[in-house]
Design goal:
By secondary structure, the protein is α/β, with parallel strands linked by helices. It is built from nine helices and twelve strands. It is about 25% helix and about 25% strand. The two termini are about 35 Å apart.
């Protein structure tokens, strides 16, 4: 795609990466204002379970390869992650977040204090159920929220939309931090989600536990930089596993790291048509394994 000259010109000139993950943000609800800061593409989440998806983002590997199954497992020490790259790194979330263990306990440094060059990853849970903030951080908040919205799909959707706006405002604060530090020109920012969400489109199903459907598999991914193109790019799909190789290429690093993804720059500039799959397996109660395959804008298989 010749129109990606702005992004192509940044290869090897980017010093920093910021990855902002809005938990449970489905593709059709992404803040359209993102298109004013960069471009947005459709992305296949590698799982509908947060620890599995984040492990794929961090390693560039599909779930069977990185072997993370749930919050009790960690990425094996033999597998390189974005937090092993030879620059300053940080993963920012609540200190009690079990994802620290999944990601092998990377450093936790706020963006304001992270020295260049750096990779900063943040997970924002505003868009994770419960969507109403007064139910977060309280005993049985999840159950109380579900009980409170049980008869009102309109309220459920309204709460979700408000949560998306709160997450977007937090994201804008991070951009403002980069601006205040004079780093916008040297930083490539990626806004994405770990998986989508069901908002009662399938009978009694809610949130992202089951089943695999387009609303849970497809998420937005935005590439943001002052020189990047603007708007939405149609007829293209990328995957979680494409984030890590993109970072390596854009940072100009020559590292012998094996990933199962491709650079987003190559996918877009060369018109590469990629396949991706979403893997989900939960233990306890019903033992369910589901597997979905996506290409372009359509999910071709649901098994």
């Amino acid at each position: 795609m010749a129109e990606l000259r702005g992004l192509l010109s940044l290869q090897g000139k980017v010093k920093n990466f910021v990855i902002f993950i809005a938990d449970s943000l489905r593709y059709d609800y992404y803040p359209k204002e993102l298109e004013d800061y960069g471009f947005v593409v459709k992305c296949i989440a590698q799982s509908i379970f947060t620890p599995v998806s984040l492990a794929s983002i961090a390693t560039g590997l599909n779930p069977p390869r990185h072997m993370v199954k749930d919050f009790s497992t960690s990425i094996p020490s033999t597998i390189p992650t974005i937090f092993d790259l030879p620059i300053n790194v940080s993963y920012w979330d609540h200190p009690y977040d079990p994802l620290y263990r999944v990601l092998r306990r990377p450093p936790r440094i706020p963006l304001e204090k992270l020295d260049e060059p750096f990779i900063y990853v943040e997970r924002c849970d505003e868009t994770h159920v419960p969507y109403d903030p007064k139910f977060k951080g309280i005993p049985h908040g999840y159950r109380k929220y579900v009980w409170s919205i049980r008869w009102s799909k309109n309220r459920l959707i309204s709460d979700y939309a408000k949560a998306v706006e709160r997450a977007y405002q937090i994201f804008l604060e991070r951009l403002n931090t980069l601006k205040k530090r004079g780093m916008l020109d040297r930083t490539l920012v990626i806004f994405l989600s770990d998986h989508g969400e069901i908002l009662a489109e399938y009978g009694g199903f809610l949130f992202h536990k089951f089943p695999l459907v387009p609303e849970t598999i497809y998420v937005p991914l935005a590439i943001i930089h002052p020189n990047a193109e603007r708007g939405f790019i149609k007829n293209v799909v990328i995957r979680h596993v494409d984030v890590f190789p993109t970072m390596i290429q854009m940072l100009g690093l020559k590292l012998p790291i094996l990933t199962e993804g491709l650079s987003i720059v190559d996918i877009l500039s060369k018109g590469i048509e990629v396949y991706g799959f979403n893997w989900y397996k939960r233990y306890g109660g019903f033992r369910i394994t589901t597997f979905g395959v996506g290409i372009k804008m359509v999910m071709e298989l649901l098994l």
